[in-house]
Sequence to fold (600 residues):
Amino acid sequence: RSSSASSPCNLARQTLPANNLRHNQHQQQRGMSVYGFGQQWTGALSRGPSNLFADEAYELSPEEIQQFGECQNMVPLDGVGDHRKCVAASVGWGHTAVLVTDKTNGFDDGSKINNMEPKLMVCGRPHDFQTLMRLRRLPPFVRNFCVKHTLPSEDEQSSDQSPSTLQRIATYFAGENEVTFNEDECRRYNNVPTLLEIDLPDGDIPALEGGIIDNTAFDMHAAGRISRENGESNNSRLHTRFQNTLVANAGVTAVISKTGTLYTFGLNHRGQCGTGSFLPNVWIPSRVVGLASTRFILDHGTGSGDELFKQFKEQENPIVSVALGLQHGVALDSEGQVFCWGKGERGQLGLGRRMAHEGREEEAPNNEVYEEPNQNRTFEYAVQVASFYDPYSTISPSPDEIYAPVLSQQDSKVRMVSAGMNFTLAVTESNIPYIWGKNICLNPNYSESGVNLRSKPVQDSAYPRFIPGLPPNLSIERVACGTHHAAMLLEDGSIWAVGVATDRPLPLWGEAVEILAPGLVQMKELVSFTGGFGRTVVVFGTKSGRRQVIEIQLWSNEEFRQNGAVRPSWLDWLENQEAQEKVCSVHRGWMHSVVVTEET
Fold:
């Protein structure tokens, strides 16, 4: 059972006490566990092959919780227990990715975070999306038959073994996987009912959020290496700590290592792994290519045309943050440069430029419409997003100007990135939020009262578009995206969002609206800020030493937005069943969710 949109409650009107605990942005604590709830047949709850078809912790609907007083229970993910602790997690559409470490490798404060050597583990369907969609539509008894007989059996040792009759029948009902050429790897990795350890190449180790990027990481990449060879030094780095280092989405997983190297694996028929090819699957973690500015590749690359960028295997700088959309990705490097790759047919990669006369009464010269040659192209390698126009420019364009003025190189350096299903979000060092992609801006030619043949109320934006509406002089501290909304947490604790409303398909892209008033979130005690599908989740400390967790959605109704903070019912279960544990982060997925906790 899957939950529909949660109804708002009056939590926002309660006064929550502040806490004197220090800010936990770069602090992890001991004994961290991970729990989940939702549909188990995907394997994403890591309950093992014998429990794939059990309803141990199915997701309750809002009606079951509110009208019948039921409490959402959870189950621990097998593979994270007595000897391991979870230090990071992310959920995709049908799989879960976690970073775990041995409990003997503990640490007490943020200064020791770099001493940890976490391991990457995945469960569920990390290389699957199309089959997952088909299986979900099947009747449960047919779906269970298909899942059971497409699991790799223990005695399967080689790809030479022919599928059994039952396996052939199950494959027929589930549908052929049209994006794989390696059936053996497909059977091995497409259905992982228990957490499976995944090694990074060359013994590389995953990085953790808040970890310090050491000099070795800077020196090993192209810019650092060239500076060292030239006897130069560069100590004025914009980002010196890692941000989001692990992300899972629709059949793709991305992880950043301690060296600042970005790896991806999973489905790739749209180039969404960014590894330089359109091979249908990337079975093992592989480096994203092209992660350097256009100028840097032109100066130091070899080849010509597309090959110049595709064959640039090095990174210019360490990558500090990564996010994934449905079939595209975005990364941020230590110098504030942004790169996108994958499907770009609806502007998801941000390669267009704003026209000088857009939004003005005067028309463009000769009424011409200009487009960048590659602005809606799909790329199998990373390309730089460089055209952040200046929304505050007071210069009127001359009649012969084509493009709007852009920010200076310094002002266009980016501080944070995130991604929704088909759009991308970035916030610059100058605190300007931008968004680009599919259906993310209002169509100025659309009228609710008029005849709108062949037009929609929203349209795509192939260039980074400024998000208006935020209160002035307040810093954006965190960003998080769901499938159809983007949320921004400001320094006063308020949360603002743009996107499609939860309660009805109303586009709210014109300007940001407040979905949580200041005063509830204690920013000094902020623990995590995440987005998943229709929800934004914030975790922060309270005076009692407990953690408060609230979920917010983007409502079209103003009253709902003012009183829409919800305390999830699974928090009652956790406090009753595991009273010694506190919530670290919440990760909401399509058919399952995961909660990371730590011992008090």
Summary: The chain has eleven helices and 27 strands. The longest strand covers residues 433-442. The CA atoms of residues 581 and 599 lie 4 Å apart.
